[in-house]
Amino acid sequence: MSNNTSTSPKSELSVENHTEVRITPYYQHAGITIYHGDCRDILPMLPKVDLVLTDPPYPGLSGGIEHMNGGGVSERVIHGSKTVGDPWKVRFDEWVKPAVDLSTFGGFFFCSYHSVAELRTLIGDVESAWLLVWYKRNSPVAICNVPRFTSEFIWSYKTSPGLKWRALETTVFDIPTPQGGCMAVERIQDNAGKSVHPTQKPIALIYKLLAVGGELILDPFMGTGTTLVAAKQMGRRAIGIEIEERYCEIAAKRLSQEVLFGVDIPQITKGEPDASDSLFSTLESA
After folding, report:
1. Is residue 209 part of a domain?
2. What are residue 125's phi and psi, to 5 degrees?
3. Residue 272 counted as domain residue
4. Is residue 102 part of a domain?
5. Domain of 220: which CATH number?
6. 24 belongs to a structural domain
7. Most buried of the four, 8, 67, 75, 230, by CB within 10 Å?
């Protein structure tokens, strides 16, 4: 059932494809729009945005092992170790170029170490690109004979001047992943205490990334809506696309509740950067 709360019969973010088939927003309120569908179908219909920020499915990961994490009151079974990319059957080459083409000023794409090189190639010939690291100090211990993986990567890219890239004070973000179990505060869980989404990102990290600016944000793989919640709290407009309706419903509820989880919202950076503004210029890539 749709959660569209818009009171206007016509919206600037309603979209039509070349066959004149209109896609009605699943949710629309206070500058935030959610589309329930496949981003590969919806991206070609969208207007240009200022910035794209998304955490797509990661292809090529293995797993499926259940194990205990921690002990005492925090002990719990981890069920979500299976791949979070393959079930969606989506490849980077199916959405990256359309997303980059929509971004007027730039964006951020999350990825695992498996896809760092491929994703940079697909981003293409942009003005600049920088590789950021999210350090997850509370990552679960390794079960198989592999290192304990405590980091994910984020490709940031600049397509034209318009964002304040110097607002990124580092290229390594030391922010814990949302805690599950009985200690969960930010993590969204079902009635059985199981995490609803396997890769929910901390809203504190999204705040850090959105500090570069941008008035209209797009997240093609919205999940439970963390990017949209952060954008709303920072006074931005945002568009989210999600193929699973249960996540659309959760995101709509989060946006209605406007929960901040006690995280400080950084000051919004506005204005055109000057000509000398370049984040870690020695690391710029063509």
Report:
1. yes
2. -85, 85
3. no
4. yes
5. 3.40.50.150
6. no
7. 230
CB atoms within 10 A of CB 269: 17
What's at 95, amino acid-wise? W
Packing angle of the helix pair 203-210, 226-233 (nearest 10 deg): 60
Per-residue confidence in pLDDT tens, the chain, 286 aa? 444 444 333 344 556 554 445 689 999 999 999 999 999 999 999 999 999 999 998 876 554 444 444 444 444 444 444 444 455 578 999 999 999 999 999 999 999 999 999 999 999 999 999 999 999 988 878 788 888 888 999 999 999 999 999 999 999 999 987 665 555 566 665 666 666 666 678 999 999 999 999 999 999 999 999 999 999 999 999 999 999 999 999 999 999 986 444 444 444 444 444 333 333 332 333 3
* Amino acid letter, 3: N
Q: What is the pTM of this model?
A: 0.76
Number of domains observed in the structure of the chain: 1
Nearest to 134 by CA among 186, 188, 177: 177
Q: Which domain holds residue 222?
A: 39-239+256-267
